[in-house]
Amino acid sequence: MVPSSSMSIATILSVLLIYGQQVSEAQGVVIFDNCFRCICEAASGCNLTSGCDGPVCGPYRITWSYWADGGKLKLDGSPDSEAYPQCVNNPHCAVRTVQGYMDKFAQDCNGDGVINCDDYLRIHRLGGYGCTGPLDAKYEDTFKRCKETLRNLDS
Ligand SMILES: *[C@@H]1O[C@H](CO)[C@@H](O)[C@H](O)[C@H]1NC(C)=O
């Protein structure tokens, strides 16, 4: 069994290189890159080549309806029939989709008085209408370990 701390610094750094310092757009909620990275870790181990698996695609494991709510973004030249899988399998388009989804559904899911990455993780996993529900332990643990690792890298 691979130890849970196996999320490698190399993984994080490679994702950091891909996403840059801060991905958020000018309008809407401001989400910092560490948040995107740790949601990605929780969703798939941030596997950028994970492809589609049943109803979910890409490193963020995004469904068609999430992609639609996130703005139905498409890559240049993508045919309409391929717009969803091609977008959410592309790291940049996937992040913009997550951003679009959060712009739409940002809320204080855990009732702690602030809207931050802990809430975005819940919205990502549980959806915009059910984010107060329980998170599965593995998902939450992976996220927490990622945040801790990045905090240590930052300092
Ligand atoms: C990423 O996902 C693909 C498809 O499921 C899999 O073949 C590959 O081993 C995964 N890579 C890692 C690093 O887990």
TrEMBL record:
Single GO term (MF): lysozyme activity
GO biological process terms, semicolon-separated: defense response to bacterium; killing of cells of another organism
EC top class named in words: hydrolase
EC nos: 3.2.1.17
Disulphide bond pairs: 35-117, 40-46, 52-57, 87-93
Keywords in alphabetical order: Antimicrobial, Bacteriolytic enzyme, Disulfide bond, Glycosidase, Hydrolase, Signal
Protein name per the record: lysozyme
Organism: Dufourea novaeangliae
High-level lineage: Eukaryota, Metazoa, Ecdysozoa, Arthropoda, Hexapoda
